[in-house]
Amino acid sequence: xxxxxxxxxxxxxxxxxxxxxxxxxxxxxxxxxxxxxxxxxxxxxxxxxxxxxxxxxxxxxxxxxxxxxxxxxxxxxxxxxxxxxxxxxxxxxxxxxxxxxxxx
Length: 104
Description:
mainly alpha
């Protein structure tokens, strides 16, 4: 078996210097301009409203539907409050419409 010559690992990896790292303001502008990797679940509120109000899906089904259609797998703790908010808004709108109809 041939012996291998030990190498100095610390000299093989270049040490970053000020010339190789971009300034922080350049990095900040690039970070702000970057597309988000995953949108917040509220971005899909209108879609969730259709799924909940028209298709009568529950939060777990909405979560699965979003995942199956490429939006990503969101925690149920993020989806459920949005589903509740959609239902609440629909109920309030229905009550306001009914009240307006009775007043006319």
